[in-house]
Amino acid sequence: MNFMNDTIAAISTPPGLGAISIVRLSGADAITAANAHFKGTDLTKVASNTINYGHFLADDQEIIDEVMVSVMRAPKTYTKEDLVEINCHGGPYVTQKVLSTVLGSAVRLAEPGEFTKRAFLNGRIDLSEAEAVMDLINSKTNLQERAAVKIVDGALSKMVKDLREEMIKVIANAEVNIDYPEYDEEELTREKMALVTKSVRQKLRSVIDYSESGQVLKTGVKTAIIGAPNVGKSSLLNMLYRGERAIVTEIPGTTRDTLEEEITIGQLVLDLVDTAGIHQTEDLIEKLGIEKSHEMIQLADLVLLVFDGSREMTPEEQELLEATKNKKRIIIVNKSDLAPVLDLSVDHINISALNGTGFNELKEQIESLFLSGIENSSSATLLANARQLGLLKSTNESLTSVLTGLAEEMPLDLVLIDFNEAWKSLGEIIGENAPDELVNELFSRFCLGK
């Protein structure tokens, strides 16, 4: 199939009722296909980057809707192809009818992510920028949005291209020395390779460290609410959720399994798990719930360990203090609205889940644990996704092998193999040498119409 002559269409707005829906077309026949059903200005003659008022007609010339049609001509479009966006009134029936009308022999339904895939294949964006488009769509906090925008704007691409440019000069010099040893510049080439390798590794190391610490911005913080029965774990979940997600009663052991909820706290997304109260019991169902609670302590990125400030600590709670001491945790003393009885010598926060006291302090501590050095770092290069981060690590490992080979005075042609591998791994981040299967799989995750 000739890619540039293949025209696609899809609905680009979310399903459901709304003020406006957009049907998008891209390809060589996009303008003529839209114009065939448009009553108004001749779209084939309008200037690029204009929006045109008229009516959209069915095949029998019956008016479907009053519309505004944007016309953008190649190559200065999102896909670098002719692009048309039909803005109609929102609603499933009207939008679907506009789409089905433009589909035909010259226009087919787009695959998920195909508009962005075309932008990549036509050279408008690279693979890292394409991935960041989806990150931007899925962002839930200001920091997630800022991180995605930096990559969409090319921060990662520029860094990768600059590093590869440094490396390709060394590769060229090394290959000349291997092919023409009579030039006798191998020692200079080794020195240059060592300098460039150390420089690239230093830059990658800072990016890798920053990216690893920033992964919680993308994946969310798996957070376990742990404690004895009736200390207020479910009330804490409700306070954080600001709703009535969990059942709260005075009966110990109400929560017998785990309850999960995703919430946003400041700049972080927390995957909250409210666990069964840990205590001695002969009830089989409660025992299974308590086993899950212990499992969650090990799996969680953050433990919120809750105590009842109106009573003394139990032996089981003392064991929880010990079991969580090597985890990222925040110790919470609940029921500060009652007369204090519990005396804790470790750092903790006093809250009342009943009336919301202590919420701001808890929020600040959570953010401090995970965002220290991230939130205010405007100079950081990126927050890479898992694929990009893996390729950065592979590059770093190959460069480490290069330095080892140079130190052990291995033949230059063998050292160059690792150096080339590093260069190729960097290229895969932006889509150079990326297998078709990977590209297709990545874009299949996009929504239809993007």
From TrEMBL:
GO terms for molecular function: GTP binding; GTPase activity; identical protein binding; metal ion binding. Its cofactor is K(+). Mg(2+) binds at residues 234, 255. (6S)-5-formyl-5,6,7,8-tetrahydrofolate binds at residues 24, 85, 124, 450. It is an enzyme of class 3 (hydrolase). K(+) binds at residues 230, 249, 251, 254. GTP binds at residues 230-235, 249-255, 274-277. Keywords: Cytoplasm, GTP-binding, Hydrolase, Magnesium, Metal-binding, Nucleotide-binding, Potassium, tRNA processing. GO terms for biological process: tRNA methylation; tRNA wobble uridine modification. InterPro entries: G_TrmE, GTP-bd, GTP-bd_TrmE_N, GTPase_MnmE, MnmE_dom2, MnmE_helical, P-loop_NTPase, Small_GTP-bd. Pfam families: MMR_HSR1 (PF01926), MnmE_helical (PF12631), TrmE_N (PF10396). It comes from the Bacteria. It is found in: Cytoplasm. Its EC number is 3.6.-.-. Binds 1 potassium ion per subunit. Exhibits a very high intrinsic GTPase hydrolysis rate. Involved in the addition of a carboxymethylaminomethyl (cmnm) group at the wobble position (U34) of certain tRNAs, forming tRNA-cmnm(5)s(2)U34. Belongs to the TRAFAC class TrmE-Era-EngA-EngB-Septin-like GTPase superfamily. TrmE GTPase family. Homodimer. Heterotetramer of two MnmE and two MnmG subunits. This is tRNA modification GTPase MnmE. It comes from Xylocopilactobacillus apicola.
